[in-house]
Model the fold of this input.
Amino acid sequence: MAARIIDGTAIAAAVRAEVAEGVAAHIVAGGRKPHLSVVLVGEDPASQVYVRMKGRASEDAGMTSDTVLLPATASHEEVLGHVRRLNADPAVSGILVQMPLPPQVDAHAVMAEIDPRKDVDGLTPANLGLLVQGTPFHAPATPAGVVEILKREGIETQGARIVVVGRSVLVGRPLALLLSNRGAHANATVTMAHTGTRDLAAVCREAEILISAAGAPGAITADMVRPGAVVIDVGTTRVADATRKAGHRLSGDVDFDAVREVAGAITPVPGGVGPMTIAMLLVNVARAARALEDRL
Ligand SMILES: NC(=O)c1ccc[n+]([C@@H]2O[C@H](COP(=O)([O-])OP(=O)(O)OC[C@H]3O[C@@H](n4cnc5c(N)ncnc54)[C@H](OP(=O)(O)O)[C@@H]3O)[C@@H](O)[C@H]2O)c1
Done:
């Protein structure tokens, strides 16, 4: 029997509606309107699209947003100066520095400068440290989105064997930590796999929940999937496609058509994990606004 297809777009819409309700209640209770400030350095077209989407989503949820646009030649000190200014501004609830940054800017140092309460990307050393400690505050949005999908789909993680393919600081590693922490929608036995993993197929076949965040189209084939497993595809890679007007399409890591015949449930690309990232960013901005006003 073909796998159930998980509708990430619908789950994200539900999360976004809940955030909007929470924001409205926060304002009625006398709170400030949450505000997201994005720092964008340079003119990378993909980054411009993401930043626009984040701004629009914030406004849809009843928040405000602005973008600090800096030229690709901006110095490290200049970027740090803007982060410090946003840290000090009480009207700013969340700060997001869009990656990648140009080479003259030290991305680690810039991230470390963000006030952890305003770090809605969850990537400052303080927030990553809290995650390692098992007491996350702002978790990175994409891993949090994967956990939210599992939660809302009623997929049990307690004691489950989970394999995460990928070990990046942005996705794989925080996701493995979230899922292996104690607590609800966690408490799993997690293996983090990567390019150094011996016999990746055998490791993946052990998974009751297989999550791929490799950014490698076709990396997960049907023979790597245990029958009935839940397969979550975080991969989003632009691949050339002459049949599309744009000349390209987005591809996940999973060989969707074949894996669908083996898995119990599966996320598509697009329409799976992708929409959850912005939804969980909004969750973080709303939390930041409450935290700054001691309303948590
Ligand atoms: N849906 C969303 O909103 C969203 C958000 C963020 C990222 N993404 C997507 O998620 C994917 C991962 O992002 P990322 O930032 O984590 O990428 P990344 O920094 O390139 O990390 C990829 C990880 O996967 C591992 N890997 C790559 N190919 C592999 C293979 N064939 N077998 C086993 N392991 C492999 C790498 O191993 P090594 O460490 O050994 O190199 C690395 O740890 C990308 O497609 C990205 O576009 C989607």
User: Anything to note?
Assistant: The chain has two domains: 32-115, 141-276. The longest helix spans residues 8-28.
